Each structure stands twice: as C-alpha cells, then as structure tokens.
Amino acid sequence: MAMVRLAAGFVVYTSLGHILSSLAVILRTTDKIVWANEFEPIELTCLIESISTNNPRIEWKKIKNGVPSYVYFQNKIAGKQLGLSSARGPQHFRAGSQASKRSCMNGDLEHRAQLREPANILIFNTSRSDTAEYRCEVAAIDDQRDFDEILISLAVRVKPVVPRCSVPEAVTVGTSTELRCLENEGFPAPQYRWFHNNEELPQDPKNSHKFLNSSYSINPDTGGLKFRRVRKEDAGEYYCQAKNDAGHAQCPPQMMEVYDVDILGIFLKSFAAVAVFFCLAASICHSLKRGCFHKKGHNENNYNWPAQNDGVNYRDADEGHFRHKSSFII
After folding, report:
1. pLDDT digits (tens, 9 = 90+) for 225-253
2. In CATH, what is the architecture of 164-259?
3. Assigned CATH topology for domain 23-157
C-alpha cells in the first residue's frame, strides 16, 4: 500500500512539474563561449526549451565594456540611435516599446546579421569589433514565469599581419646578438617561430642533433632570437613567422653575415695607435729642447738694461771707467 502511495505521489509530482514548466519560458544555448574567425559567419544560439506564449518578445543586446547596445529590437536588427541604459528583466519588457527605446543605444550589426528561428542570431561576417558579450532576452506574457535570458561570450580571432623583423647584417664569430620579431594585430596574441635557410629552428636546440652546438634561444611569446656566441654556421637567411588560431604571416627573409675575428685589422689598428703615441712624444721632446715651454725674462737674451742717467754713458763698457762728458761740471 505504501508503494502505491509512493508511486502515485511521484506521478502527481511529475505531472505538476510538467504543468509548471509548460507555464514558464526557459532558454538554453549550445555554447556560452563562442570563438569565430574574422570575416567568417557565426551563429549565436538562443534555444527556447519551454514556452506557452505564441508571440514572445525577443531581444538581443551586445554588452561591450559594460555598455549595452541593441542588436535585435522590435523584430528587426537595430540600426537607429537609441538612449543608453542597462535596464533589463520582465519589468523592462512590461514597460512597453517606448521605454525599451530609451533603454539602450543602437548596435553596429545592421545589414550584417539576421534573426533565425527560434531566436538565434546569425552574423554574416564577423569583425574584431564584434568581440563582446551578447544577451538573449525572451518575454512571454502568457507564461507564469514570463521572462528568461541567457548570456553568450563571443571572441573573434584576428589573423596576424606581416611582422616587423630585425636581423643584423653582419656579426663577428664569438659575439652575442639578437634577432627581433613583432606583430600587434593578431588576436589572440600570436606565437613566434624562426626559420634559418627555410628550415624551422627548434625551440630548444638540444632537441635537434643538427643544432646541438648552437647557443641560441627563442622566446615564442616576444619573438626574440638570441645568440650567446655566434658561429660561422649561423650565417644565412632568417625570417620570422607569427601564428595564431586564425592564421599566420611572415616577414621577408633577411641575410646575416658572420665574419671571423680580424687579427690583421686589430694589429694594424694597434700599430697605428702606437705610432701616433711615439710621434706625439717626439714632438713634445723637440719642443722642450727648443725652449718653447720656458718662461721669458729669466735669461740673458731677454735681459732688460737699466735706464741711463744724464751724463753717464753705459755703452763703453770696455774701458772699465765712466767717461766724463763735456757737460759734466765739477
């Protein structure tokens, strides 16, 4: 008897749940996080699992940086400027179309999207500006639960453009150098790979017998290719490739020459420096011998004779005495 009551109760509960669910609008989606490639179509699904109202009101909003804008409004893709707000929910729907016009601004999907049954949004050619959150809202006035919504996140992948590569034209054996690669357009941020003479360099040279003795390291996030000690074998053409899930792009090949240490050049430069030093020293010594650096006023050639007094002639020094002038009077 107890089992009969239990079975009857289960049937009643199931029937009641079915009746209540039939009086509520319920939404679901196949994917809450959606990825799409730029310039390709994508469909955001808003599936109505349960509803009693024949003509529910369906709206789509795009939310970017916290600011909502209409995508689908009043049975068409929004294209007119509307007021700005974030109002939503059943009260928003019951307020009528005039209140709805004041609740959001227009979107940027006019002529690029359409509503597909039952409430999906199809974007014909996505752009990077379409990356945002999208909210599907359905109001059913004849249902006991007359409102439901679902939020979907859309991320648009962008193919990288041709990266900017920097390769030194010439380096010397045994020195360090760095090759650079940079790209700013791709989304998500691309990973970088380097090629030497059309052969991809492994991320870790120790994993390849051919590059086992190489001293380079690659940063796939920043695009840097660093050599601790350049070898003669490192000479050749280099180019970089930036790649993400949307595609890849690469810069034109650039040549890097590797030269041996120029011993003769170093010797000639050292010899020239020594020669200049000795020439400078000889010039200083010669100037000292000529007395170019002595101070004037302390030798006989520059002696200043004392001034002559009246009646005395100092120029006849060979007689040893003063001569009396006729003008001298005792």
Report:
1. 999 999 999 999 999 999 999 999 999 99
2. Sandwich (2.60)
3. Immunoglobulin-like (2.60.40)
